[in-house]
Write a structure and sequence with these properties.
Elements (H helix, E strand, L loop, with lengths): L31 H9 L1 H9 L3 H7 L28 E9 L5 H18 L34 E6 L1 H4 L36 E7 L2 H15 L3 E12 L28 H7 L15 E10 L1 H4 L4 H8 L30 H5 L10 E2 L2 E7 L5 E11 L2 H10 L9 E11 L16
Antiparallel strand pairs: 1-3, 1-4, 2-3, 4-7, 5-8, 5-9, 6-8, 7-8
Helix pairs in contact: 1-6, 2-6, 4-6
Length: about 425
Amino acid sequence: MTIPEQDPRDAEAAEPTAPVVSEATNRPGISRRGLIGWALGSGVAGLAVGAGGAAAVAATGVLSGSAAADQYAFEGAHQAGITTRVQDHLHFASFDMMPRASREDLISLLQDWSYAASRLAKGLDVSASGAVGGAPDAPPDDTGEAQGLTAAGLTITFGLGPSLFTAEGDRFGVAERRPSVLAELPAFVGDALDAAYTGGDLCIQACADDPQVAVHAVRNLSRIAFGRARLRWSQLGFGRTSRTSADQQTPRNLFGYKDGTANILADDAKALAEHVWVGEQDEPAWMSGGSYLVARRIAMLVETWDRLRLAEQDRTIGRAKGSGAPLSGGGEMTEPVFSGHAIDEHSHVRLAHPTVNEGIRILRRGYNYVDGNNDLGRLDAGLFFLSYQRSPEQFVTLQKRLSTDLMSEYVRHVGSGIWAIPAGVKPGSFVGAELFA
């Protein structure tokens, strides 16, 4: 990766435009409420860390003149971090609005988050004062651990949970605008959900090629939220388990198998329009150009898996561990053949394949995780599954089909969440602005 000759923090031309306020007084930069969050929000920041050309931009998300895809545009037709080339590290965070937070608080938070995210995506501090400017007798605006680092391909994606639309008394004034498909996921066979990793009014997905850059983003956005929203849970991820670019090699999950071979790629506009992006004819209109995100924390019983014979591992997955080829023959990219007996009818590959699921496809963007060990002395490890789809029904259909998956003996779904992902941010606006129009 080429390091820019000039630190972007010193270039005033890189200063992003502050978001326009739709239901409050116009103001540059972060709102007064957000500045208070910087001054008082160090406790929230600690929780976040401890818990765990226009056409070219629209097509690729890469900022003009950026160093080898080191920067992705925050603004665009769709939010970055969906079809963006999958980065190596993740920090995902779920938030709840504070009990007394109002509609104005929600709007101002999304505005402040959008302004800060537009700076962070450029490798800048969250405000012009940064980590070393401002008054010496007050906490700095930026926590500073990303000083000297590049943007590292950072993308920040924001989502709105179903609980936001069903808040008591409709205190955010959005109940009538809730997408009919946005509802808590049904219970699935084998679920063992832990409330500590489930749900949330809002979510932030920060992906980067440097883990410190991703953590820095969530930490500072958490500080900005102080007084309006609080962290519910978060998850660190490493080692992508999918690809969104044809030139990326298919990665391997913690079971040692290639994962995401048949994933939807960023250059497949037809598949994206059919399976990922909410269409103009879909309801509600404010979600046009957006998507729906499902997150599942899937614990993998790696010690049990590691004692399986190789042949049984291959039968469970339906692919050869070494080459990634389907057991029906060919290479990794060869379409599997299910008419014979080479691939077990309950293998993961068969049950997840579009040909047995009404043609349904989803865009996967998951990561591995290892969070130390559990109380049995075994690795607390698994897959943090992330999928984007035009409707949550796509995921529900697939997950129900996987109820007889041979792999279910070796995994447990312990966390879950669903969020509406609004369309991309227009210059001078903020994420989710169409919801409040």
